[in-house]
Structures are given as structure tokens and as C-alpha cells.
Specification:
Length: 212
């Protein structure tokens, strides 16, 4: 049971490490657009509907395929249809600002909320926002020295993780050896060798914003 729990915890650590590597790669290499439609007086500003519409137009003009299909409207109280959409990957600290954007639809307002991902917060136009506590943020980098939050807006197959020489993630367990003073304790861990990279620069845009 202890080994099973260790394997479960290490699995979470492994995937979060992969996410962090991909996050840092996108922050360093993806082209960006600053939010400009907000009222906080900073550069970039907080996110607005005009900023969302602008980045969606860029992805459409670049022939990026949407990732999620539309969710058709149904005769249910307080719901709204959801467009086919690109993913927007961002920090959980942006949730309050997303709620305030015109036309925002929280995932509990989807006609079929069971089609939403666990990390999904909601949708604005043709963007469906996935939030994470390890979302990308650049401290003290706006014109007013506020934190800047990167929102990676991506189309289908915009980036990938390339395994080096087919070297996929490995879970390693070494049992204790009871024949001397060395190696008396068990060890468990993982290792992997992969490189995240953008596959098409036109299909991923970093929408940079601050908070209200």
C-alpha cells in the first residue's frame, strides 16, 4: 500500500514537472500580444472581451484548428451554447478577472457540463480557459511593475513533447538489501528525457495580462 501511494504521488509530480517545462518553453518562445482593452492603466491591462476577440482572430487567420467541439444549446435554465474553441492555459489567479469579462460562460452554465475538463474554468467566445496553480506569471514586469500573467492560447497540435530517442518516463523502485550496512533503505523515483517544443509558431499566441 505504501508503494502504491508513492507511485501515485510521484505520478502527479512527474506530470506537473512536464507541465512546468512546457510552460517555461511557451513563455520563452511563443509570440505574444498585450491586453490593451482594460481600465487599470497598466501595460498590459487586465483581460477584456476585445482582447479575447483579437487573439481568436489571429488564430483563425493563421488557420489554427480548434481543439474542442461546440456544445449545442439545450432548453435548460441559466445555460448557454458553447462555441467550438481553442484552449487558453493560464494561472488560477486570473479567475476573478475572467468572471468579469463580457460574455464569460462558467462551465456550470454549459448545456452539458460533463463535457468540461476538470481544470476548465469557463469560456469566452472561442476560447475555453484551463487554469492551474502553476500557470505562467512574470513578476514585476508590467509598465507599473505589476505581475504579468501569460495566457497561452493554442490551437490543435500547436506544441508537443518530444521523447529523446524514445525515452519515455520510467518509474524506478529499488528494494532494500539486508546483507550489510549499505543499501538498507528502499528508494523510489522517476526519470524521463523529453523536450517540449512549438510545432507551429502561428498556432500559439501568448496573451499577456495583469490584474484589475
Amino acid at each position: 500500500m505504501v508503494l502504491n501511494e508513492c507511485a501515485s504521488r510521484l505520478g502527479v509530480s512527474l506530470r506537473q514537472t512536464e507541465d512546468q517545462l512546457t510552460r517555461d518553453m511557451l513563455a520563452a518562445t511563443a509570440s505574444f500580444i498585450n491586453c490593451l482593452g482594460g481600465i487599470n492603466g497598466d501595460n498590459p491591462t487586465e483581460i477584456t472581451r476585445a482582447d479575447v476577440d483579437g487573439v481568436v482572430r489571429e488564430l483563425l487567420n493563421n488557420n489554427a484548428y480548434t481543439i474542442m467541439d461546440n456544445i449545442e444549446g439545450e432548453n435548460k435554465f441559466g445555460t448557454a451554447p458553447v462555441r467550438d474553441a481553442y484552449f487558453a492555459l493560464c494561472s488560477t489567479k486570473l479567475t476573478g478577472n475572467l468572471d468579469a469579462v463580457g460574455g464569460f460562460i462558467h462551465k456550470n452554465q454549459y448545456p452539458a457540463p460533463m463535457n468540461a475538463l476538470r481544470s476548465e474554468w469557463g469560456a469566452i467566445g472561442n476560447l475555453r480557459f484551463l487554469v492551474s496553480s502553476i500557470g505562467s506569471v512574470v513578476p514585476n514586469s508590467s509598465a507599473l511593475m505589476a505581475d504579468v500573467y501569460n495566457i497561452f492560447c493554442v490551437g490543435m497540435e500547436a506544441f508537443a513533447a518530444i521523447e529523446q530517442d524514445g525515452y519515455s518516463a520510467q518509474f524506478i523502485y529499488r528494494p532494500p538489501i539486508y546483507d550489510g550496512p549499505l543499501a538498507l533503505n528502499a528508494s523510489v523515483g522517476y526519470k524521463f528525457a523529453e523536450v517540449p517544443r512549438i510545432t507551429n509558431d502561428l498556432w500559439v499566441i501568448n496573451l499577456r495580462s495583469t490584474l484589475v
